[in-house]
Specification:
10 helices, disordered C terminus, binds protoporphyrin IX containing FE, 173 residues, 0% strand, mainly alpha
């Protein structure tokens, strides 16, 4: 069976090595905290203004300010900065934290489009860093889609099947 990482690479078209090229340089030191705050603010302004109700509604139970802070603190931590996210929220556990939301292929593509537009507008981030960040985002987005499909398969399995696996939790969360 394909692992979540393999599915993420296949669906995103981003090899694992390219997704984790964010680790080659310390992007936090290179870009600084304010660039991350600006990026997440720009991104979530776009998400909350999205003309597509189906996409906007995924975020309806979150306050925009909180969503911005959650996101930039995670990016800072993941890209070489201090562990701001974990100190406030605990382990990122991205698949588990996205479990309440329908993270479909379509939702991933729309999330990525907003992120691409936000990056295009970020004059404080250099082109090479933008490419590295986008590869990481793209791969992670489809990793979450793979996690979402696992969740749905598990639900169907539990409804439609009486075998011993029905009680098992997915292995990779
Ligand atoms: C694929 C499409 C995606 C959808 C539909 C989605 C949706 C959401 C939603 C609705 C939230 C709750 C907002 C909040 O209260 O913080 C959230 C939180 C979050 N997302 Fe995503 N997301 C996606 C992709 C990503 C990607 C690619 C990353 C990382 C690269 C990411 C990282 C996070 C983080 C760190 C949080 C905060 C979790 C928490 O602390 O509760 N998401 N996402």
């Amino acid at each position: 069976m394909q692992s979540l990482q393999e599915k993420a690479s296949q669906w995103s078209g981003v090899h694992q090595a390219d997704a984790f090229a964010i680790d080659e340089t310390n992007l936090f030191e290179k870009l600084g905290l304010q660039s991350f705050i600006n990026l997440s603010t720009n991104f979530y302004n776009r998400v909350y203004d999205d003309e597509e109700e189906w996409f906007r509604s995924i975020f309806a139970n979150s306050k925009k300010e909180d969503a911005i802070q959650n996101q930039y603190e995670f990016f800072v931590q993941r890209m070489g900065g201090p562990p701001m996210y974990s100190q406030r929220r605990g382990h990122p556990a991205l698949i588990a934290r996205h479990r309440p939301f329908p993270v479909t292929h379509q939702a991933a593509e729309r999330w990525l489009q907003h992120m691409q537009n936000a990056l295009d507008e970020s004059s404080d981030i250099d082109p090479e860093s933008k490419i590295k960040m986008m590869n990481f985002f793209r791969h992670t987005a489809f990793f979450l889609v793979a996690g979402d499909e696992l969740k749905n398969q598990n639900k169907q399995h539990q409804v439609g099947c009486k075998c011993k696996h029905a009680a098992e939790k997915p292995a990779e969360e």
